[in-house]
Design a protein that fits this description.
heterodimer; A: 61 residues; Alpha-Beta Plaits; two-stranded antiparallel ribbon; two-stranded antiparallel sheet; globular; B: 400 residues; alpha+beta; Cytochrome p450; three-stranded mixed beta sheet; 49% helix; binds protoporphyrin IX containing FE; binds iron/sulfur cluster
């Protein structure tokens, strides 16, 4: 499964980092980084993060 | 050299503890022109868009209301709950509680409630539509905001008054007379926990896939969400969802009364309902500021913010900042940068899908069924700071 964040609408709330810390994190400069390609076992976490994102900026495919 | 902000008397001062203080006053606009922050009776206030946005997720700040009961010398049931609940938690505990609560607040679950919100709004409007007048708060926003929580909890609408009364009495804890009102607050807290316990017992006996059902599923693993944390979360949803929504919808009506062409536009183009909610929350957020506290000394904008400083992030002044919003007038068709009416960062409102969904339906239906609304007597307002809104709003209108 592919993970993408639309950075034009992401407001860096960090709700994805709370929901799925293995996929999303903040780098030292405070920017959002994520694992772009995940396996099936992580799909549930990715969906939880996508649901939790207040801006609905996470696209899974 | 960096100055200690609290001692910097070149910074403007705002007396935010004065009940007559208004977050929309000229003093705030002048302060925002002069500086990114002001000194206040409690600490500091951030006034501009970019700073509020950055500070909402600044790692050196924590949510700042957790000490409110201790600050008032209050202990007991309310204080225990307040200090334990999600909003007062940070770091790992906050993240765990939030992860456990997320499924109950997911957009999928909430969108299944939309037809219920529509039915509720129509039922309430039916009761006053023919009269051509109502108290918009007592007759609409209060029963609506509470009815939405009944829908969320899977309770019949008939229980709304009971819930509204409990939430109102518990809400006294946020006021300046916290200590005098303590017996009332403690009794209401006991009632709300009895209520939550009853609800959980019922759903354990007959499992559901709804809001309470989701929380009960999370509670299956006691290390992730204990029985006490489950009840604390249900109480927070009741407490945090009622007055906010009531106030925000009252502010919406006041804004439309002041700019009637926008209401006509919404009645012609109901698809603008969601945009109307966002625009109302930009110009008149009920939560006019959020409170943060510095966990250690840090430097921001060449200013030293000492550990323990209370910082109020002024959502209201940030989203009318002319630097960011050159045409700041109320316009539901304008493309806008995001508002801060639901806060931001780790404590971003957990109930925002519910609030956005229910307010969109309410505004769409009101625009269709109530024409030419106007004030029909004096409006009673809460102070124009902190969590603001109307508590009485007589209106007259032409039935559609
Ligand atoms: C128009 C209605 C609402 C407004 C304006 C609003 C506003 C806010 C704001 C500004 C915060 C952040 C406070 C801070 O950072 O200090 C917040 C947090 C929260 N809200 Fe809302 N809210 C609304 C409706 C709701 C509803 C309907 C619910 C639940 C059913 C809810 C549940 C919560 C919870 C649980 C938090 C704490 C989140 C955390 O600490 O992680 N809210 N809300
Ligand atoms: S939750 Fe959404 S808005 Fe927040 S950081 Fe993650 S992707 Fe961005």
């Amino acid at each position: 499964m592919k993970v993408h964040v639309d950075m034009s609408i992401c407001l860096l709330h960090g709700q994805c980092v709370i929901a799925a810390p293995e996929i999303f994190s903040f780098d030292d400069a405070g920017g959002l980084v994520w694992v772009a390609e995940i396996d099936e076992v992580q799909a549930g976490d990715a969906e939880a993060a996508s649901d939790a994102c207040p801006e609905q900026a996470i696209v899974l495919g | 050299m960096t100055q200690d902000a609290l001692a910097d008397d070149t910074l403007p001062f705002l007396d935010v503890a004065d009940p007559k203080f208004s977050i929309r006053s000229q003093a705030v606009l002048d302060a925002r022109d002069a500086s990114w922050c002001a000194r206040t009776s409690y600490g500091l206030a951030a006034l501009r868009y970019d700073d509020v946005q950055k500070l909402l997720r600044h790692p050196k700040l924590r949510q700042g209301s957790y000490r409110w009961p201790a600050h008032n010398g209050v202990t007991g049931l309310f204080a225990r709950w307040w200090e334990a609940m999600l909003l007062s938690q940070e770091g790992d505990t906050h993240a765990r509680l939030r992860r456990m609560a997320n499924p109950a607040f997911s957009p999928k679950l909430i969108s299944s409630l939309i037809p219920k919100f529509q039915a509720l709004a129509n039922m309430l409007i039916d009761q006053f539509a023919a009269k051509g007048e109502c108290d918009f708060i007592a007759d609409f926003t209060e029963p609506y905001a509470t009815g939405v929580i009944c829908d969320l909890l899977g309770l019949p609408f008939e229980r709304w008054r009971e819930l509204a009364d409990i939430a109102g009495e518990m809400g006294l804890a946020l006021g300046v007379t916290f200590k005098q009102d303590l017996p009332t607050i403690e009794a209401a807290t006991q009632r709300i926990f009895d209520f939550a316990e009853e609800l959980v017992a019922e759903r354990r006996a007959r499992p559901t896939e709804d809001f309470i059902g989701m929380l009960i599923q999370a509670n299956a693993d006691q290390d992730q969400l204990s029985d006490q944390e489950l009840l604390d979360m249900i109480v927070l949803a009741i407490f945090g969802g009622i007055d906010t929504t009531r106030n925000q919808l009252g502010l919406a009506m006041a804004t439309f009364i002041e700019t009637p062409a926008q209401l006509t536009l919404l009645s012609e183009r109901p698809e603008l309902g969601r945009a109307a909610v966002e625009e109302v929350m930009r110009v008149r957020p009920t939560v006019t500021w959020v409170t943060r506290e510095a966990v250690e000394d840090f430097i921001y904008n060449d200013t030293l913010i000492p550990a323990g400083t209370t910082l109020h992030l002024f959502s209201q002044s940030a989203t009318s900042d002319p630097e960011i919003f050159p045409n700041p007038g109320f316009d539901i068709t304008a493309e806008r940068k995001p508002h801060f009416g639901f806060g931001g960062g780790t404590h971003h409102c957990l109930g925002h899908f519910i609030a956005r969904g229910d307010m969109t339906e309410a505004l769409k239906l009101l625009a269709q069924r109530i024409k030419n609304p106007r004030f029909n007597g004096p409006v009673e307002w809460l102070p124009d700071s902190g969590n603001t809104g109307a508590i009485r709003m007589p209106i007259a209108f032409d039935p559609a």
